[in-house]
Design a protein that fits this description.
- This protein has about 375 residues and is an alpha+beta fold.
- It has two domains: about 240 residues, Rossmann fold; about 70 residues, no CATH class.
- About 35% of the residues lie in helices and about 25% in strands.
- The strands form three sheets. Strands 1, 2, 3, 4, 5, 6, 8 and 9 form an eight-stranded mixed β-sheet that branches.
- Helix 7 links the parallel strand 4 and strand 5.
- The structure holds S-adenosylmethionine (SAM).
- The site of S-adenosylmethionine has 20 residues, from helix 5.
């Protein structure tokens, strides 16, 4: 199914600008610059530019949709299959399309998409029509944050907020306030069995923003479904580390080729996320989340886990029958009983440096 999304996205991108693989790759390259190096200087309405929009459609819709699908299929955050969906900062509806192609997406009947850029949403609607013509789509051109924010009325079984947080403009304090207000308003628009999914890149800055949001959640009104395992405070926030998942992925060939020609070669889906529910639900305390890759020295294998009691180190040697502890990917969770059998005291902060994690950088703040 992702192949037909890919083809529809490429065709739509091609109808926006000159339709040759070389021009689409150049557009992807331009969009990549806007999303990374030029992030600080780009205009807030950068997707109004046809080339940037074509680049986003051809190069980002599918990987972003696959991230959302991966998250849903892994966490199963919905108590019932969603019928009504709200997509905030929808862009070309990447998150909605990811939900539609997930295990939980088969019952979706209505999508309300909100973004400041109507053209991006129209592009995405054309793609969505190819795969789910039965779904009714309403587009709302508005801001999701600030004094002028008017979020559509609920209830929704799913509120999707994907790759939006880093686009919100303002001072550090005002961004934090806007995000808090948007999250509260989103949770209020969820049905009792619904869920708000926040998805961001797996980068240090994006993941730590989400960790901060998580620590400011009011437990009286909102339950944290994932990725947290029940610790009261995020144990990584004080360590200058960041929590994210990464998994290998097969982006459909036509998209992979265009991205590759634009210099984007990553085959990993790396993302950070937060799944919230409007009513407190029992917190699962019997899982431990693997928040690093396996680190090896001559004698030992080490891995960090997050549990209801906070951060811990798992330690074993070659030949120990640790099963999933060695094989699972960063971000996966395992039974706490399995982790507990190999637990040693939490890592000291000074040892936390290095690439293989938990993702850390620089000095402790
Ligand atoms: C990086 S794109 C993400 C699009 C889509 N959710 C995805 O994951 O691919 C960010 C989107 O947020 C929109 N946006 C930025 N600021 C916004 C705001 N204050 N309110 C609503 N949408 C906003 C942009 O127009 C853009 O479409």
């Amino acid at each position: 199914m992702w192949n037909s999304v890919a083809i529809a996205a490429i065709q739509r991108a091609g109808s926006t600008i000159a339709d040759t693989p070389a021009s689409l790759s150049r557009a992807i390259g331009k969009t990549a610059q806007l999303l990374t190096r030029q992030r600080g200087t780009r205009r807030f309405d950068y997707l109004a530019d046809p080339v940037a929009r074509a680049g986003y459609l051809a190069g980002y819709l599918v990987p972003n949709g696959m991230r959302l699908q991966h998250l849903i299929d892994r966490e199963q955050p919905f108590a019932v299959a969603p019928r009504r969906v709200l997509d905030l900062g929808a862009g070309p509806l990447s998150a909605t399309i990811g939900l539609l192609l997930s295990t939980a997406g088969h019952q979706v009947r209505e999508v309300v998409a909100l973004d400041t850029c109507e053209k991006a949403m129209r592009d995405g609607t054309a793609v969505l029509r190819e795969i789910a013509p039965q779904v009714e789509v309403t587009l709302v051109t508005a801001s999701a944050v600030g004094r002028r924010a008017r979020l559509p009325d609920g209830p929704f079984q799913a509120v999707l907020i994907a790759n939006l947080l880093s686009e919100i403009k303002g001072s550090r304090e005002s961004i934090a306030r806007h995000v808090r207000e948007m999250v509260v308003a989103s949770v209020q628009r969820c049905s009792g069995d619904g869920c708000v999914l926040l998805l961001e890149p797996g980068t240090r800055v994006a993941a730590r923003n989400l960790m901060q949001v998580r620590d400011e959640i009011d437990p009286a009104t909102t339950a944290i479904l994932a990725p947290c395992t029940g610790a009261d405070r995020c144990p990584l926030l004080g360590r200058n580390a960041w929590c994210h998942a990464s998994h290998p992925v097969n982006v459909p060939g036509p998209i992979a080729r265009l991205r590759c020609a634009a210099g984007l070669t990553g085959l990993e889906l790396s993302y950070s996320y937060l799944a919230l529910a409007p009513q407190p639900r029992p917190v699962t305390r019997d899982r431990a989340r693997l928040i690093s890759d396996v680190m090896a020295d001559r004698k030992r294998r080490l891995r960090y886990v997050c549990t209801a009691d906070g951060l811990a180190t798992l330690e074993w040697t070659d030949g120990d029958a640790v099963g999933d502890l060695a094989l699972a990917r960063r971000g996966d969770s395992v039974p706490r009983s399995l982790a507990r059998a190999w637990m040693s005291p939490p890592p000291r902060t000074g040892r936390d440096r290095g690439q293989r994690g938990p993702a850390t950088r620089g000095r402790r703040r």
